[in-house]
Amino acid sequence: MCPSPTSERSEQIQPVVSVITPTFNEADNVPILVQRIHDALGDVAHEIIVADDDSPDRTWEVAERLAERDPTITVMRRFHDPGLSASVLDAMTIARGDTLAVIDADLQHDTSILPQMVQMVTDDTADVVVGSRSTAGGGYGDWSLHRRVVSWVATLIARLLLRVPVSDPMSGYFVVSRRTYEASAANINPKGFKILLEFIGRNRDLRVSEVGYEFSNRVHGETKLNRSVIRSYLLGVAELWVGRQINPTFLLYLLVGIVGLLVNSVAFWVAEWIGFPLIDTGLNDAIDPIATSFIFSVQLSILALFVMNNEFTFWEQRYRGWTLVPAFAVFQVMSLVGTGVHVAVFTFLQENGFLLSILGGATRVVHNLLGAVIALIINWYLNTTYLWRRRS
After folding, report:
1. Region 259-271: what's the mean pLDDT?
2. How many whole angstroms separate alpha carbon 380 and alpha carbon 348?
3. H or E element at residue 159
4. What is the C-alpha separation between 57 and 132, in angstroms, rounded?
5. Cα distance from N-terminal residue to C-terminal residue, the chain
6. Can you give the residue range of the structural domain that contains 361?
C-alpha cells in the first residue's frame, strides 16, 4: 500500500469530511468524479482518498497526476488483499475527517446529494446515511431486467436474514460518522463486496437514514457485477448471519449441495415414475437389484454439483477451458467414493425397512436422500483437500 506524497500537503487543512472512492480500472472516471465532488461540497472542507487496487489501466497514476495539482487528494496504490471492502477500510484508517463518505468511481452515484448526506451525519441526526435507489426520490435508471432481479433478490436476502433497516442494503454510496467507524472497525470483515452491510448488519442500534437518488448508467469502463461479486455478497451475508465460527465457503458448498440433492431426488422420482428397468447386479440376496433410476439420479447430480461448485463455491480456484475435462474426471472419481457410501447407506436402510411403516411408498426416496447427505459431507473433505484446494 503506497499513499501519495501529497497527503502531507493535504494535512494543512483539517477536513470536515473524507470522501473515499475505491477504484479498479477507472482511469477515465476519476478526473470527472473528483471535479464533481469538489463542485458538490463547495466550501465544505474535504479530502478525497482514491484507494486503487493497482489497476492495470493505471488508475493510480491518473489520480497521482491530479494530486500533484490538488492537495486535497490522497492516493493509495494497494498491492495486497484486493477487494472493495478492504480498499475502503484501508482508506478509512488514514482518513482525517470526522465524517467518512464512500462513493463508487463509476459516476453512477449522484454527487448532488452528498452535502445533504454529510450534513445529516455532522448534525448528529444519523450515524449512517445511505444513498438509496429504492426510497422516495430514488430510481435504478435504465437497468436491465437481469440486474433488477439480481438486486431485488440480494436486497430480499439481506432484509430477511439480517433485518437491516434500509430499503437499499446493496448501496455502495453512504456516509458514516467517525464515531460509528471506530466502534465498528474491529469487528468488520474486510472480505466482501458491500461494506455498508458490515456496518448496519453488525450493529442494530445505529441510527440509519436514507436519501433518494437516481442511479446513472456507466459511461466509461466495465461493470464489476459478475458471479464473483454475487458470490462475495452471499459469503458476506452468510458470515453476518451465522457468525465467523462456521466457514462461509462451506455454507455455499452446502447450498450447492442442497440444490444437488434436489436435482438428485427429483431425477430419482421422475425415473421411478417413468419406470426405468432394474439392473440385476448378479449378487442375488447380497445386494438388492439397484434401480436404474438410482444410477441416473446420481450421475445427473454429480454433473450439476461439479458445474455449480466450479462456477460458484470455489470461484477463485475454478477450472476453465480444457482443464475442465481432467478436473471433472477427478471429481467423478471422488464422487464415486461418496456414491459408494451413498449406496451402502441406501441399501442398508432398504434392507432394514427403516421408516417403512411411516412413509410407505416414499421410503425409497427418503433413504436415497439420507445416503446423499452423508456422501455430501465426505465429498466436501475430498474436494477441498485435493481438487479445489487453494492454488498459488
Report:
1. 83
2. 23
3. helix 145-161
4. 30
5. 21
6. 248-387
Greater confidence (251 vs 123) lies with: 123
Q: Which of 227, 177, 230 is nearest to 207 (CA)?
A: 177
**pTM here?**
0.68
Count up the domains in the chain and report the number.
2
Q: In which element (H, E) is residue 279 found?
A: strand 278-279
- Which is nearest to 151 in space by CA: 208, 229, 220? 229
Phi and psi angles of residue 240, each rounded to the nearest 5 degrees, phi first:
-70, -30
Q: How far, in Å, CA of 319 to CA of 310, rounded?
A: 7
What number is the average pLDDT over the span 135-144? 77
The residue among 354, 349, 200, 245 whose CA lies nearest residue 288 is: 349
The DSSP line for 187-221 is G--S-SS-HHHHHHHH-TTS-EEEEE-BPPPP-SS
Q: Among 242, 264, 280, where does a domain finish?
A: 242
For residue 218, pLDDT over 70 is answered with no
Burial label for 112, CB within 10 Å (0-12, 13-18, 19+), is: exposed
Orientation angle between helical segments 363-382 and 292-308, nearest 10 degrees:
40
Distance, CA of 65 to CA of 61 (rounded, Å): 6
**CATH no. for residue 21?**
3.90.550.10
Looking at residue 46, its pLDDT comes to 96
How far apart (Å, rounded) are the C-alpha atoms in residues 368 and 345?
A: 8
More confident: 168 or 176:
176
Alpha helices by DSSP H, 275-353? 292-308, 324-352
Is there a contact between 130 and 210 (Cβ–Cβ < 8 Å)? yes
Cell matching residue 62:
491518473
Judge residue 190's burial from the number of C-beta atoms within 10 Å of its C-beta, 0-12 exposed, 13-18 middle, 19 or more buried.
Answer: middle
Residue closest to 236 by CA, chosen among 263, 210, 201, 184: 201
